[in-house]
Design brief:
109 residues, 3 strands
């Protein structure tokens, strides 16, 4: 069994080209039980993805890819980290984290 856990959609500005409906249809056709979308620093496609996945019998996994600045020893280093929501509380936590990043000006698309 294979499950894509890292997928940038059309909602990953300048980075993703996958269309949500096409990705979900492909996952369903391949018999994948679940699929994750992990756009860069946003959840803009979450509702569309959730509805499309549920409609095709694929478990939707919501996530985001975020950039973390380096430690004090090397502040110039940036690491890309994948965050996946395990449940509804995880989704709410991810929403809060991304909202803070955008409103405090610490994220770049």
């Amino acid at each position: 069994m294979f499950i894509h856990l890292r997928l940038h959609t059309e909602f990953s500005v300048v980075d993703g080209t996958a269309r949500i409906d096409d990705a979900v249809a492909s996952a369903a056709a391949d018999g994948q039980p679940a699929l994750a979308i992990t756009d860069i620093a946003n959840l803009f496609g979450a509702v569309k993805f959730y509805k499309a996945a549920r409609g095709k019998g694929v478990k939707p996994i919501l996530g985001a890819e975020v950039a973390l600045r380096g430690l004090a020893a090397d502040p110039a280093t940036v690491s890309r980290v994948l965050l996946l929501a395990q449940n509804e509380q995880g989704y709410l936590n991810l929403c809060e984290l991304l909202a803070r990043a955008w409103t405090q000006g610490v994220t770049k698309a």
